[in-house]
Amino acid sequence: MSYQITSSILGLLLAGIILWLIRRDHLHSHHALWWLLVALIVMVLGIFPRLIDFLAYQLGVNYPPTLLFILGMGMILIKVISIDLHQSDLERKIRRLAQKLAILANERDPDNNPDD
């Protein structure tokens, strides 16, 4: 089996798994868009392998597979930054929620102060 068919099947399989995870409510659609984009890129590069050669030539990269690694690492870096931003947002929301809960608990029963 040629690498073109293998890459195409891998992209389709990845897209199928992503859609299954969305349907089972294991993956939020916001995150799924990223992974569906990755699956699409894998399929396109599998079907049109000369595309990476063309892009490498246009960008002045002498060895086209190097461009794949650079693009892959760049995508991973973007995903990690995205995860960190999301994590920071969640931590901030949890902290504010805990503070509001403490205020409400104190308003409800001001005599029951845990610091005493």
What percent strand? Answer: under 5%
H/E series? HHHH
- The total of helices stands at 4
What is the helix content?
A: over 70%
Q: Globular, elongated, flat, extended or rod-shaped: what is the shape?
A: elongated
- Alpha carbon gap, first and last residue: 73 Å
Beta strand count: 0
Radius of gyration: 23 Å
Number of domains: 2
Q: Sketch the major β-sheet.
A: none
Structural class: mainly alpha
Average of per-residue pLDDT values: 87
Residue ranges: pLDDT <50 for 5 or more in a row? none
InterPro entries: DUF2304
Protein name: DUF2304 domain-containing protein
Keywords: Membrane, Transmembrane, Transmembrane helix
Transmembrane segments: 6-22, 34-52, 67-86
Task: List key phrases describing it.
4 helices; 116 residues
Description:
- This protein has 116 residues and is mainly alpha-helical.
- It folds into 2 domains: 1-48; 62-109.
- The chain is built from 4 helices and no strands.
- It has helices at 3-23, 29-47, 50-59, 64-108.
- Helix 1 (3-23) packs antiparallel against helix 2 and helix 3 crosses helix 4 (64-108).
- The longest helix has 45 residues, at 64-108.
- The termini are far apart.
